[in-house]
Amino acid sequence: MKIEKLNDDKIRITLNLEDLKEKDIDLHSFMSNPIESQDLFLDMLEKAEKEVGFVTEDYRVMIEALATSNGNFILTVTRIGDENRKNMGRTKKLNIKRKISHIDSKKAIYCFDSFDEFIGYCEFLKNDVFVHIENFLDQSKLYEYGERYYLVLENLRMNTNLLKSFASSITEFAHFVNDWDLFEHKLSEYGKVIFKENAISDGLRYFC
Asked: What does the DSSP 8-state code read for residue 62?
């Protein structure tokens, strides 16, 4: 992790995959969930305060994230100026559970609010680099549970760049499910199977 102070109200933080792995952060989760809600981001702010004197207590911050072609992640953090400072007391750290999966995890679950959202994603894939996404999967399943639809992806065979692009694109239609290993058991027991295997391929074949 590299922290650079650009000016009094702005820093740049560079992360690589080893930084995520060290913090037990899954790449799917990092790409899919809001960065400001993660333990890693809170750790970065504390480190920035110690190393470069970048204090965010009582301030609002704006985050810009960029994934580079060499596998690094660059976060630009801007602190709102004194004129917008609020007398709120010290901001509490969010109680976010550490992810138990690691960077080399080959499984993920994504939740779609409706079947139409799933089909919308399949339609997106028709004109995207992932039109042959089935080549990167050994198996994918689609469940209905609680009026939502869950795509279970197994044995993902993607390099870093493909995985980053995939995680970024699918979050336009669905959100990553944390603690997927526990949730998969719930789906198996209580969910209704829509596609038992090859869910994305079947979605493309029958609905797009």
From this structure: E
